[in-house]
Amino acid sequence: MTNPEQAIQYIHTHFERFIRELSEYATIPSVSFPGYPGEPLNESAKWTARKMRDAGLEHVEILEIPGAPPFVVGDWLHAPGAPTVLLYAHHDVQPPGRPEKWHSPAFAPERRGDRLYGRGVVDDKAGALMHLFALEAYLKTAGKLPVNVRFLIEGEEETGSEHLGEFVRRYKDRLKADVMVLTDTANLDLGLPSLTYRLRGLVDAIVEVRTLDHPVHSGMWGGPTLDALSALNQILARLTTPDGKIAIPDFYEGIEPVVGLEKERLRALPFEERKFLQEVGAVESLRLAGERDFSVYERIWCRPACAILG
To answer: What is this structure's pTM?
Structure first.
């Protein structure tokens, strides 16, 4: 039986090295968006593979699908009778955006206080290294892991993982597992580690409303002539009811209710409305919306929502 306390102590002992390695990782500008050079993604994949080997993983390979940034895989399969866990993260990052908005260069990570600032230090290079540091800590202290592990670190998550399905089909034998854990989610709050175990799906649609085949002068035609924006406004206003429910027919069809212990734990989570509104940048007069019969966390994580973007 492995001792997690020893592994945790190892992490505390080597914490500063881990931060240095994360900083080094984040200096690689591995942006996966079109128009950015591909070489940093190759460099990032090589860096990832090297750290996988350093941590103790075996069968580490950089695998490619035509047209996709490189994937990195590895495994440790020496726990007979134990389940196999597939650990997922990604080594690509978002574009840095406008340089003048950064207090320090996006790809020159800077430590200020107890935080590290740089593109990718959280999403998701910290996620990739968190897996590897945990594995290293176990192997260095116990010599083995309590479970079998497989690793998949992809390079195009930020652009929608277009080739991930093809990769999984082609290399499914390298990814066989009983359960999958990914580190590309958030903690509920600072100092409150969180496990995300359910996500809502997404369906989007582009709505176009036309009332006329050419523009007309509102002073001459306005009134009896319905303009498209007014028609669209009427449509949008009918999507929800005054009490926050979604009025689209059959929208709630098939939604499984949250009950029992799950509901109790959601309601027990700390929540401050003022802090929540501050974090989303709400204007002073804005109040919480949605179904009042459900807690805020149920509305965010478990209930369907209808958002209008434009």
So the answer is: 0.83
